[in-house]
Amino acid sequence: SDLPRQDQAKEFYATYEPRDILGKGLSSTVRRVVEKANGKEYAVKIIDISGERDTCKANIETLKSDTIREVSLLRMCAGHPNIIELHDFFETPTFLFLVFELCKQGELFDYLTQEVSLSEKRTRFFMHQLFDVVNYLHGKRIVHRDLKPENILMDDNMNIKVSDFGFATVLPETERLTELLGTPGYLAPEVLVQAMNEDNDGGYGLEVDIWACGVIMFTLLCGSPPFWHRKQMYMLRDIMAGNYSFSSPLWHDVSDTPKDLISKLLVTDPAKRLTAKQALMHPFFQRDIRWSVAGI
Ligand code: ADP
Ligand code: MG
């Protein structure tokens, strides 16, 4: 919208009617809204930049610039069927409004919680779409940095919609990232190593998303994460050592092919980890006629 900023709040509320809350983050609330003109439903992420909850001006400026970056990255990805569509954006002195397509089926996280664990067939369906998105993002040198089942939404046909580009950034080929960002259980070892050695000039790159895909795939198939400890320190130590196993009885009924793929994603050396393109070519995704006949 090109209106002056003060008028954009009016325009937002004139166009959309707010309904129930769908989710809440640190500085954002996501609500269902209805477009008054046609009854169409959307989800709006409302970001509070009034400074009433956070009096530090520097934080507000960071929140604003991060959100503007999130919007520009979402626009770069417009049209991919498995990336959340940004329908509209409003900017006012106190709030930013990001209007998204509505994912009525909610988070993959909630679906998994309800199902406990997923079949190899279901996992193949979700993971193929996820690797396709990651391959697309990495082709544009976009690194997501917060892939996890809470940020993977589903549409009415159970197709995934990757969302929450709040930590995403474009990484030029000659550069490396250094910030400690993401969600603890999904952090790649090189992110932790970077954070611990301040004078380390290695940094990290796109491969962190592949590690997160490995954590997600492991979790989908057995219903619990590969790295978990009540004391977070021990969990982080296990991540850095790549210390996980398929020994739990939960893995007894899972075949070797998906385990082989996971073991090529959860590789501590990012240079030896599969790329998204290589993952898509793994035998786990090479469906042949016998599988469909057997209904696997
Ligand atoms: P945050 O950066 O605060 O984590 P998200 O973009 O991940 O914000 O949104 C928070 C939550 O709101 C999501 O985990 C999801 O439950 C819900 N949500 C976000 N976008 C949508 C959407 N388009 N449709 C349905 N629910 C959504
Ligand atoms: Mg989120």
Automatic annotation (TrEMBL):
Residues noted as binding ATP in the record, renumbered to the chain: 45
Signal peptide extent: none
Keywords: ATP-binding, Calmodulin-binding, Carbohydrate metabolism, Glycogen metabolism, Kinase, Nucleotide-binding, Serine/threonine-protein kinase, Transferase
GO CC field: phosphorylase kinase complex
GO BP terms, alphabetized: glycogen metabolic process
Residue span(s) of domain Protein kinase: 16-285
EC number: 2.7.11.19
Keyword ATP-binding: yes
Family: Belongs to the protein kinase superfamily.
Record note on quaternary structure: Hexadecamer of 4 heterotetramers, each composed of alpha, beta, gamma, and delta subunits. Alpha (PHKA1 or PHKA2) and beta (PHKB) are regulatory subunits, gamma (PHKG1 or PHKG2) is the catalytic subunit, and delta is calmodulin.
Designated name of the protein: phosphorylase kinase
Organism the protein comes from: Littorina saxatilis
Parent-protein start and end of this portion: 49 to 344 of 459
